[in-house]
């Protein structure tokens, strides 16, 4: 499980518990974020992907299912591009194939300016609020804001640079792993067009649109999110997936 921009492994706590009976779950903290906020930040999506691969290699993990949320979804697209033979199933959650996000609640350039003006703590709380349909009133907001607040200004700016310079559009059709695309229909960061591009271009892609959720489906509707993951990871291998034409 690869978290997104200003996220961390702690945000997956409930999902790890839900999957632990049937899967060995590895929830990573990217350099500069979460429990690894003391590590030097990385400023390219490809660099993050290399770090993820090295981390899995160091743990002796050869073949695995892979989930990426938001910026983490960009990172896992790069992982599967680099080592396609090792990725069994892929989950692209609240993400897209473009680092510059059309329809985002604010442009990446605006985020950079506001981060420098407001500082990392205020930025963490402001950005975390956009992840939830109920914003600051959401049940999971405070915990996500606390995780986001661990990120220093260097990591925040590096993450924004990484997204701004990346596009994976040209690689989507080459993804061979069976893929689940998950999207909350009120996501303020990723518009439907980006979700549809993933679903319609990746050859073996399923789509789950979750109503009345924003960017944090796993916290807004955790039971439904866990059911979607379990069904895809544990059961769809028994079905035949038709080729998309």
TrEMBL record:
Acyltransferase listed as a keyword: yes
EC identifiers of the protein: 2.3.1.12
Keywords assigned: Acyltransferase, Transferase
GO MF term list: dihydrolipoyllysine-residue acetyltransferase activity
Residue stretches making up the AB hydrolase-1 domain: 1-222
UniProt-listed InterPro entries: AB_hydrolase_1, AB_hydrolase_fold, AB_hydrolase_sf
Superkingdom in the source lineage: Bacteria
Record flagged with keyword Acyltransferase: yes
Pfam families, per database record: Abhydrolase_1
Broadest EC class assigned to this enzyme: transferase
Entry-linked PANTHER family: MONOACYLGLYCEROL LIPASE
Name under which the protein is recorded: Dihydrolipoyllysine-residue acetyltransferase component of acetoin cleaving system
Organism (species): Ascidiaceihabitans donghaensis
């Amino acid at each position: 499980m690869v978290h997104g921009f200003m996220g961390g492994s702690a945000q997956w706590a409930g999902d790890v518990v839900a999957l632990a009976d049937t899967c060995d779950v590895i929830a990573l903290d990217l350099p500069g974020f979460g429990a690894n906020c003391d590590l030097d930040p990385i400023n390219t999506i490809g660099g993050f992907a290399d770090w993820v691969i090295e981390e899995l290699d160091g743990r002796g993990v050869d073949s695995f299912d892979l989930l990426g949320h938001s910026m983490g979804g960009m990172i896992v697209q790069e992982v599967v591009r680099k080592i396609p033979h090792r990725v069994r199933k892929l989950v692209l959650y609240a993400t897209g194939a473009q680092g510059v996000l059309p329809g985002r609640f604010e442009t990446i350039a605006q985020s950079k300016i506001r981060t420098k003006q407001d500082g990392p703590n205020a930025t963490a709380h402001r950005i975390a609020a956009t992840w939830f349909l109920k914003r600051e009133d959401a049940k999971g907001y405070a915990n996500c804001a606390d995780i986001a607040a661990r990120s220093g200004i260097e990591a925040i700016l590096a993450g924004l640079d990484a997204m701004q310079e990346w596009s994976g559009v040209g690689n989507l059709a080459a993804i061979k792993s069976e893929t689940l695309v998950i999207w909350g229909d009120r996501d303020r960061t990723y518009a439907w067009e980006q979700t549809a591009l993933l679903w319609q271009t990746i050859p073996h892609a399923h789509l789950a649109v979750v109503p009345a959720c924003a960017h944090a489906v796993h916290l807004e509707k955790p039971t439904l999110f866990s059911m979607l993951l379990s069904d895809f990871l544990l059961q769809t291998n028994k079905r035949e997936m038709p080729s998309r034409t």
